[in-house]
Structures are given as C-alpha cells and as structure tokens.
Amino acid sequence: VQLQASGGGLVQAGGSLRLSCVASGRTDSRFGMGWFRQAPGKEREFVAAIRWSGGSTYYGDSVKGRFGISGDNAKSTVYLQMNSLKPEDTAVYYCAAAPRIISSSMRSGVNYHYWGQGTEVTVSS
C-alpha cells in the first residue's frame, strides 16, 4: 500500500486547509486510515482516524470540534478538513493506513503499517 498526502501549506490563524491522502495498492473495508502530526521537537501526535467500513471517526482532543475526517472509498482517498487553525497546529501531517485494525488501537501510530511522506502545514499568528 502506498500513500500520497497533499494539501499542506501556509495559512493564517483562523483559516482552513484540506489535506488529502490517496491510497494505492491493496486496501479493503477492514482498513483504518489515520492522520498524525509531528511538530519540530515534539512527539508524533494522533489527529484523526476513520474506518473504511462503517465510517466511524476518531479525533485527538486538541482538534476535536475543529477538524473533520472523511473518506471516499471510490477514490481510495481520505480527507482531513482543518478549520479554525491555530499556530499550534503547525506540523508535518502524515497519513497512515492499518489493515484490520481494531477501534481501540486506532489512536496509536504503532498500529499503522503504512505511512505517507507527510505534508507540511504552517499556521501563522
């Protein structure tokens, strides 16, 4: 499975961005797709995740209510809509995929087998 993330950029605080992650290769309804981020000098942080089957979504506490994750099965694409962006959202954002992942494991990056190359998001104050 290969993942290609895009959509990052520079935005002012309060603005919005939409990230995309296209998955190619063997994926099926049992896959979970997640977004993680890592800011300079900080540990990787869970942002959001979605299950292809059923569409259940999960969010990190710092983005809940501001970010939305969605998926388009036909396009094998996952989106991360980021609204009300803050300077502390500045990071490199990575998409990840996990086959047959259980819900309780979706917030931990160690459970994801495949990772995209990352797309950089910078929020200016």
Task: Report on the architecture of this protein.
This protein has strands at residues 2-6, 9-12, 17-24, 32-38, 45-51, 57-59, 67-72, 77-82, 91-98, 114-115, 119-124. It is an all-beta fold. The strands form two sheets. Strands 2, 4, 5, 6, 9, 10 and 11 form a seven-stranded mixed beta sheet that branches. The protein is globular and about 40 Å long. The chain starts with a strand and ends with a strand.
Query: pLDDT below 50 for ≥5 consecutive residues: which ranges?
Result: none
Q: How many helices in DSSP terms? A: 0
Strand content: over 45%
Indicate the overall shape. globular
How far apart the termini lie comes to 37 Å
How would you spell out the order of helices and strands?
EEEEEEEEEEE
Query: How would you state the average pLDDT, rounded?
Result: 94
Helix content: under 10%
Q: What integer value in Å does the Rg equal?
A: 13 Å
The description of the largest β-sheet is:
7 strands, mixed
Q: How many DSSP E strands?
A: 11
* Classification by helices and strands: mainly beta
